[in-house]
Specification:
By secondary structure, the chain is mostly helical. It is built from 22 helices and no strands.
Amino acid sequence: ALVTGAIVSVFAGGCFFGALIAGYTANKIGRKRTIQLGALIAVVGCTIQTAAVNVGMLIAGRFIAGLSIGVLSMIVPLYQAEISPPHARGLLSGWTQMMITAGFFVANWVGYGCQFLQNDGQWRVPLAIQIVPAVILGAGMFVLPYSPRWLAQEGRHEEAMASLIRLHGSEANRELIAFEYDEIVTQIAWEKENVSNNFMDLFNTRPSLTRTMCGIMVQVCCQWTGVNVNSYFGPTIYANLGYTGSTILLISGISGAWGMIVTFIFITWMVDRIGRRKPLVYGGVAMAVCLAWQAGVASSDDPNYQNSSAGIAGIASIFLFSGVFSISYGPVSWVYQSEVFSMPLRAMGTSISTASNWAMNVLLSQITPIGLKNLSYKYFFIFVASNVANSVVAYFLFKETKGLTLEELGAVFGDFDVIAPPSARRIARDAANASPLDEEKKTDMAHNEFVTERV
């Protein structure tokens, strides 16, 4: 059990340190270049794993690949949030979880197919395939824009405006672009005067502490849903239900497809409508029910699960749990942590939030083999309790963030540095779509309200 836990956790340990590294590089070289750095590390780590000639080399490659995932899992949602319009930020940031789910889906089916190989390609081919998306990501980032917020923070204002225009597709909505640009630049100027980017600034005021606790706790709660117990140790769980061999891989492949479909539906049509907080509150309760169901099925002494309704019920509980996770903590945790921090602290705050996720991942990957061995089905009751606790934390701590710009969220967390109120942005949007006769009048109204509220 200890060896199994160590093999699983060495990767997550690399992720932990990678997330911390990205907190520094995100500000130093920017969001875009940090993504490319993560892709480069992934190529190195996956190449070492593929070429491994002994266990030590494999573990070293696995750790290096973990560093890359730590970097990317921290920086990609942050980049997505900073280039997204408020009304679609949940959708675009939610693609992080969508692609994680797609990765599990591909990995499961690659594993299923490679089991039929009769040489060491059975494990080298899956490892080599990981290099392909890393190369595509690294090369693809050359054609994507820099974050306009990072450019503005670096004083590269002309480039920031050009990036905003590119993100909007054209200069047709020039009033809205101008408001967004002024909002970003003015907010950053205020924060440079009033907020430093020291580590302790994440905790030294009540608004900052609230933001930091929200970022950390949404990731800690995500791990304590028990999702990675089902993911990493799925084969063990399916075996305990009586399934064997290729049947386990087939079930895992179908489960991956199911999770991907549910995640896509949620981020496309739901997250920007119902928000972030409700899925976190109700999702925890629903997952607690699923895990209690799973524990109840596993407590049966039926020796022939695969030929009975008990085995089917066990699979159903796992699939239902996966579905609930895919409409709650799965995508929302990545969206939420990338929204809650102010610009000077966003990279650092997102970094420690993501590192908290991987720290919990390491812990659970170490204790789960021991828990399953010694407690059997009773181990799942720990996650029944933790999911209920997650819902309580979400209800009392997490604040709703949907529909607001990253600058406007200061008011939600108690700051006094909010630039443009939502009403001004609404008038700006109306002005962008108005007739020429009305456009000047509405733009003037928006400007006057903007100035009044700033004063």
